[in-house]
Specification:
globular; alpha/beta; two-stranded parallel ribbon
Length: 176
């Protein structure tokens, strides 16, 4: 077997014959920054499920008093995902500080990450890789991620972003 991260390898509950680790890659030609000046907002991008932490990104943005744009998908076939979105996420939208733009295609994602001053990634699980972290960094968008899963293998603290343990630390690093 080949793992996509050391974290993913460590999470396997049974004995497999791992021969190595190869992180996911990108076709960098699709990740060309828009060339526009960075704007004064942060972004969260992903699936609207609790383990991806959009509720924590909202909490951090509110505590830091910065605008947050949320983009992503709601799995309409998972009742828990729909309920989570409608009960915990949607009521936070005010279209000023907390704004939802819906699912985004590749062009829209590149534009959003190219313009944001940072990407908030408050994951609540041991994410095996975190493709959106790499996408953000490919576009020069600094990442503030919880120090879980493969994030410490991807983000170089203080260089490509920041690794934090909780919302309070995320708020502390937002101005940086």
């Amino acid at each position: 077997m080949v793992a996509i991260s050391e974290s993913a390898r460590a999470e396997v509950p049974f004995d497999l014959n791992f021969v190595g680790m190869v992180q996911n890659g990108l076709d960098i030609s699709q990740y060309r920054p828009s060339g526009r000046k960075r704007e004064d907002f942060f972004v969260w991008l992903g699936r609207f499920v609790p383990e991806k932490g959009p509720h924590l990104a909202i909490e951090a943005a509110k505590q830091a008093n910065v605008p947050l744009v949320l983009a992503g998908t709601i799995d309409r076939y998972m009742k828990d995902s729909v309920s989570y979105f409608h009960e915990q996420i949607e009521p936070q939208f005010d279209n000023e500080q907390i704004r939802y733009v819906g699912p985004v295609n590749m062009r829209q994602k590149v534009r959003l990450l190219s313009r944001a001053c940072g990407f908030l990634n408050p994951i609540e699980w041991e994410e095996p890789f975190g493709m959106v972290i790499v996408e953000a960094m490919a576009l020069g968008c600094p990442v503030i991620s919880f120090e879980r899963g493969a994030a410490p293998e991807i983000v170089v603290h203080g260089e490509t972003g920041f690794l934090v343990r909780n919302v309070a630390e995320m708020v502390e690093y937002i101005p940086r």
